[in-house]
Amino acid sequence: MGIQERKEREKERRRQQIMVAAKRVFSNKGFNKATMEDIAQEAELSPGTLYLYFKNKEELYASLSLRILQYLLIRVEHVNEEKDSGPEEKLKSLVDAMYDVYEFDPLIIINMFHLQSSETLKNLSPQLMEEIKLLSRKSLGSIAQIFKEGVETGIFIDKHPVALADTFWALFSGVVLWLTSKKIIDERKDYLKQTLDVGFDIFRRGLKK
Amino acid sequence: MGIQERKEREKERRRQQIMVAAKRVFSNKGFNKATMEDIAQEAELSPGTLYLYFKNKEELYASLSLRILQYLLIRVEHVNEEKDSGPEEKLKSLVDAMYDVYEFDPLIIINMFHLQSSETLKNLSPQLMEEIKLLSRKSLGSIAQIFKEGVETGIFIDKHPVALADTFWALFSGVVLWLTSKKIIDERKDYLKQTLDVGFDIFRRGLKK
Amino acid sequence: MGIQERKEREKERRRQQIMVAAKRVFSNKGFNKATMEDIAQEAELSPGTLYLYFKNKEELYASLSLRILQYLLIRVEHVNEEKDSGPEEKLKSLVDAMYDVYEFDPLIIINMFHLQSSETLKNLSPQLMEEIKLLSRKSLGSIAQIFKEGVETGIFIDKHPVALADTFWALFSGVVLWLTSKKIIDERKDYLKQTLDVGFDIFRRGLKK
Amino acid sequence: MGIQERKEREKERRRQQIMVAAKRVFSNKGFNKATMEDIAQEAELSPGTLYLYFKNKEELYASLSLRILQYLLIRVEHVNEEKDSGPEEKLKSLVDAMYDVYEFDPLIIINMFHLQSSETLKNLSPQLMEEIKLLSRKSLGSIAQIFKEGVETGIFIDKHPVALADTFWALFSGVVLWLTSKKIIDERKDYLKQTLDVGFDIFRRGLKK
DNA sequence: GATGAATGAGTATTCATTCAT
DNA sequence: TATGAATGAATACTCATTCAT
């Protein structure tokens, strides 16, 4: 291992350290109430150091989204690689993957919607934005692939696979967001899992020919 | 018309004038980037005047959400009052209502998620919060009522009506939010309508016994 | 009574109504925290009306000081007019007068120190300032007159009467202010009267030859 | 000198720098008219820096009062430590101490009355308030000790030492405040010293049995 | 690389005062 | 006279970002 490589590795470790702290702080306070000072303290670093690893606050935040997208893509591609499964089995696996993604970071789903703000986008480096776009596209593409198979083999109803993928993802994130926000109205906790079950069940039934 | 009544009417007109301006500004810039100064300018009023009609920025923002909830409730209750329609027809009408709600204010769905921030709630008057909670509850209840009829008459699958209502609403808001945010990836506009169609279609199919 | 005179009388009544309200509000909140809106509400008038009777907030405030000065002057001159009393009896009466002045408005003593701010003076009409100056001078002069008699008749120690008058007044307002502010340290109430007694007692003893 | 210690020293220097500037600005404009911007400019620092050293405007202001209380306590305790002096000599020394306190900061006496506002107290950290209370109590206690000795040895009249201490302090601050405010009426400067002399002289005479 | 003190632009909110009715 | 809605200047405080050490 060259000295160059060791440095690179060390640098990546620091980035991770900061991101872990940032995730915790953003989760607790939300993007706007969380300060760089908070995150620095959580990471046991100084505010200045954060800027050695991330261009600015927005980019640090976006990096967290990138992380879940990476996780999502791995899980979804894994589903697609199940050679012996048919579309229906894959759809089941996909649902399981979604549960895992939610467990991976229940709050970052909310965060991902932060990216839509045009004001936010202005502060992201084109490079990072490209990466996010790419991962989104790939993940959605991979999900769409499952539906494509189902549609082509005549098992699923005849809709455009991309629209199906979008619907599937929207259902998932919609339930998560809606029930998270419904704490205003209601306060039961396990209810999220139940509603996801109901949602995915209906989706699967509605999808079959 | 008494002088009292005229004043009341004038006052309401001002509130609306401000809300229209606020909606425009918040839509363009998002809650945090929008300044009260911006809104005042848009409304052709002075900043101080805004505070004669709304306690603070958060409450002005929340009032916008209240507005769509009011519209939503009216539309949904109207659906429930269709005496000659069975659950399936009502579900179709409900879908139409959702389209209208979206047309009424495409961005306010996003705004409604702002309400979940505990920091936000602190600055809302209990009165306004109560109203929002009540309207949410009523609307959801009214939607659930449709599903309840369907389940009881054995037309819909046997799930808890409230969970069905939540799923339905989550699907709707999920699609809206997701496709709004997907401008990062894609930029076609009519695609939203199409995806909503796909989503509702699958939902209806999956719901039937 | 002419119509002119009746109007004048009515106007004066309004001024008094406002000043009574202002005194109450300023006493509770202090000059800076009290708003013209507060005072208007207390007076059951609209904010605009206040400005028909007082040039601005500072002037309304100063008018209250004027009021106590008027009361003070009357009481002190009355003491001086006691034809049969010698300086010692008059000093006793003066002490009684001070107690009355304190009862008349315990908090306005504090307020009178507000007048010293040069920023405040800028906003007062020269006319009002002149009146205040005049009353202060007259009251102090009248107090000094008592001491002058005592000094000249050889009953009091040989100091400049004006300095004695200033010392007397300073002792009085010092005790009031200090014990008012001492609520930080201590909290007994009757203690003010006691300390005033001690102070005046020492003063009288020290004054005698 | 360790690096830790040097930093501490540097930090204290900054606090002093700010307090010196604040004293100047508050003296000229009074608490309310003085802006943090003014003080920052006077200190040749940015507004934000002020908040690194003082929690808020009120606390910066109160810190000035703390300073004179510290000075007062040292001077008064020093008087009490004069082993060879009797109560009368100590009272003379106390009077000298008061002159010094006045010279130390002629305007801060006024400032100390600002502390009485309950609105002010709300914004002070409990810690700072405790310190102020403690110093006040100690100083007054130390002054009372002098009078106690005099009363017990039968040299002073038989009054409660605490009441005597309060009267003494009230006389002092009353004269300072009154003559400061009398600039409205009069404008001679040396007159303050003279009146203090008269006041203390009468007080000492009245105190003796 | 790491620090953390300093920066200073940015903003919600208040409130004395005005003026059309 | 009286009103009270509207004004808009004024300001404490925050916090992302920088840079000398």
Give a structural overview:
The structure is a homotetramer of 209-residue chains. By secondary structure, chain A is mainly α. The first copy, chain A, folds into two domains: 1-54, Arc Repressor Mutant, subunit A, CATH 1.10.10; 62-207, Tetracycline Repressor, domain 2. Helix content of chain A is 78%, strand content 0%. The first copy, chain A, is built from ten helices and no strands. Chain A has helices at 3-33, 36-42, 47-53, 57-80, 87-104, 108-114, 118-122, 126-152, 161-181, 191-207. In chain A, helix 1 crosses helix 2 (36-42) and helix 5 runs antiparallel to helix 8 (126-152). The mean pLDDT of chain A is 90. Chains in contact: A-B, C-D. Chain D binds a DNA duplex (21 and 21 nucleotides) through residues 11, 14, 35-37, 45-52, 56-57.
Number of helices of chain A: 10
Looking at CATH, the homologous superfamily of the largest domain in chain A is Tetracycline Repressor, domain 2
Beta fraction of chain A: under 5%
Oligomerization state: homotetramer
Measured by residues with Cβ under 8 Å of the partner chain's Cβ, the largest interface is: A-B, 53 and 52 residues
Task: Assign a percent range to the helix content of chain A.
Answer: over 70%
Structural class of chain A: mainly alpha
Q: How would you sum up the major sheet of chain A?
A: none
How far the N terminus sits from the C terminus of chain A, by CA atoms, comes to 56 Å
Keywords:
homotetramer; 209 residues; mainly alpha; Arc Repressor Mutant, subunit A; Tetracycline Repressor, domain 2; 2 domains; 10 helices; 78% helix; 0% strand; globular; DNA-binding
